Amino acid sequence: MFTISLTTRSYELDSFGHVNNAVYLNYLEHCRMQWLYAHGITTKDFQRLQLFPVVVNIDINYQKEISDGMRITVSVEESSRSERKLVFYQTIQDEAGQTCADARVTVVWINQHRKVVPLPITEFPTIFKDSDAAQN
């Protein structure tokens, strides 16, 4: 499991004074990108190889409000994979460790022609090496 910590910002709030529900998706995406960076992969690598990860489904459960200035922890881990898709399980937790949201995020990889391709295990071995047990 990979985690990052964030502090919420006032401009992320809705009219009720809670973090807007759409911002939760930004937190999840930021964590996934930081996970890639931690594995030595950047968007420049996607451009160079003409292989791009694309989210095709997010199933999110909102469980608790997040307020301005809260310190939160966002996590990501591989849940399952097949030849052409990767499913992540992600959580957002408050400082007390209570889950504010959890989500299953399905990602596919596309090429420069926007066609879904098999997972780029050879091209990006660092993101797949530790998760063989999570395969379907």
Give, in order, the helices and strands: EHHEEEEEH
Q: Please give the CATH class.
A: Alpha Beta
What is the structural class? Answer: alpha+beta
CATH topology name, in short, is Thiol Ester Dehydrase, Chain A
Compute the CA-based radius of gyration: 16 Å
Beta-strand level of the residues, as a percent range?
Answer: 35-45%
Unreliable sequence segments? 132-136
Number of domains: 1
> Any idea what the shape is?
elongated
| Average pLDDT rating | 93
- DSSP strand count: 6
Q: What's the architecture, going by CATH?
A: Roll
In DSSP terms (H or I, runs of 4 or more residues), the helix count works out at: 3
| Major sheet details | 6 strands, antiparallel
Supply the CATH superfamily name.
Hotdog Thioesterase
What is the first-to-last residue Cα distance? 18 Å
Helix content: 10-25%
Structural description of this entry:
This protein is of the alpha+beta class. The chain has a single domain (2-131), classed as Thiol Ester Dehydrase, Chain A (Roll). The chain is built from three helices and six strands, in the order E-H-H-E-E-E-E-E-H. The protein has helices at 21-38, 43-49, 125-128; strands spanning 2-7, 51-62, 71-81, 86-93, 99-111, 116-117. Strands 1, 2, 3, 4, 5 and 6 form a six-stranded antiparallel sheet that branches. A hairpin with a 4-residue loop joins strand 3 (71-81) and strand 4 (86-93). It is elongated. 19% of the residues are buried.
